[in-house]
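Page 37, continued from 36.
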């Protein structure tokens, strides 16, 4: 089933109606080659060539006015009417990042992780762990300077926008909730966050109909309210670079942020997909434990985590396989000695000198090329990530 068919199955009312613009080529006028003239189609033409069908709305390029959508955050594609995803493995900090963004927008902070922010009301559906999200939101709000109240609304409800029976009803309830916030605040909600996507499937299959319904629902919410809908989700178990579940989710998202954890507590949020922005924007952050004024059952202070910008340098990417790591380390050593490129024969000699078997050596070489650690043709291979330090003579 396609996303369109899933959306049709929901029987959502149309968002807008399109006034048709009839088009015809007037052969009685002298025209430039290929020039299309606009006008009313004669009845005879309509009946003989279109069987009475209403044409789609069309526009000439020189009549199109291009206007950018209002952005919530600079350069991320988190814009009005967009669907976005924040993706990360368990304990990667995806909820902490989503809460931090929501508080920054609701509090009208000037910047968030060094990016400009356009503020506005936020509605956060903490479908998986509402108590944890509440604690993190309060802690994040306490970091805002100067202190100010923000239009951050939290719901512990679980909108089942992927369920076979519940999708249509719960989608309308979400839209009604957004409308209630807008009425209270007197302005449009800028962010609606669902944390997590899996919790909102309503028993639907994330690899089939459940995900298709949820995607259609998210797009409808964004289109009807103008809010940016953010889905907090998990990566695929087999490939951390992809989203878990049906491919319709990745296709529907205007932007995708992927979170990776690195040694030393560094997290890097990478803009992996954006329709209208350059990808590979990196946001570095760390998770910091803070103490809340409340106390637990035993009288000890409660604690939670908040997002802090990090100035740690991004670690050098390393191959995953042991043989690949050994081979790339040897090439980095040679790079520091002044060599800048190698043919594949030289690389194989280097591998054999390390005691690698011929077959495993070839596999390691192909793996480094496929993963992008070695670039160029077989007679001139070079390192994509050269070492920072090299002999002075090599740099000159």
């Amino acid at each position: 089933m396609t996303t369109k068919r899933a959306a049709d199955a929901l029987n959502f009312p149309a968002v807008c109606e399109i006034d048709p613009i009839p088009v015809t080529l007037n052969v009685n006028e002298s025209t430039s080659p290929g020039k299309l003239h606009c006008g009313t189609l004669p009845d005879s033409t309509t009946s003989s060539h279109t069987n009475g069908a209403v044409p789609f709305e069309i526009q000439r390029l020189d009549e199109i006015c291009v206007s950018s959508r209002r952005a919530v955050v600079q350069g991320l594609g988190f814009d009005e009417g967009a669907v976005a995803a924040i993706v990360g493995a368990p304990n990667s900090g995806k909820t902490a990042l989503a809460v931090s963004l929501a508080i920054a927008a609701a509090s009208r902070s000037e910047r968030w992780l060094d990016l400009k922010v356009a503020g506005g009301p936020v509605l956060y559906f903490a479908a998986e762990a509402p108590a944890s999200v509440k604690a993190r939101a309060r802690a994040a709000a306490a970091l805002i300077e100067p202190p100010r109240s923000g239009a951050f609304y939290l719901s512990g409800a679980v909108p089942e926008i992927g369920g076979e029976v519940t999708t249509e009803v719960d989608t309308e309830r979400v839209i009604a909730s957004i409308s209630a916030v807008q009425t209270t605040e007197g302005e449009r909600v800028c962010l609606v966050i669902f944390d997590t996507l899996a919790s909102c499937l309503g028993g639907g299959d994330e690899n089939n109909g459940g995900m298709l319904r949820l995607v259609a629902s998210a797009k409808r919410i964004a289109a009807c309210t103008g809010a940016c809908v953010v889905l907090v989700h998990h990566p695929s178990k087999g490939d951390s670079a992809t989203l878990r579940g049906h491919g319709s989710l990745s296709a529907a998202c205007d932007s995708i942020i992927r979170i990776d954890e690195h040694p030393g507590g560094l997290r890097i949020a990478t803009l992996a997909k954006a329709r209208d922005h350059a990808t590979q924007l990196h946001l570095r952050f760390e998770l910091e434990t803070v103490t809340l004024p409340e106390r637990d059952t035993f009288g000890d202070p409660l604690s939670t985590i908040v997002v802090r910008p990090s100035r740690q340098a991004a670690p050098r990417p390393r191959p995953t396989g042991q043989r690949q790591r050994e081979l790339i380390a040897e090439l980095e050593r040679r790079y520091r000695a002044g060599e800048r490129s190698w043919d594949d024969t030289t690389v194989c000699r280097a591998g054999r000198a390390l005691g690698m078997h011929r077959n495993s050596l070839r596999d390691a070489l192909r793996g480094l090329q496929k993963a992008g650690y070695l670039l160029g043709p077989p007679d001139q291979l070079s390192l994509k990530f050269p070492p920072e330090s090299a002999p002075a003579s090599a740099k000159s």
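The first strand starts at residue 83 and ends at 88. Flag for discussion at group meeting. The chain is about 30% helix and 20% strand.
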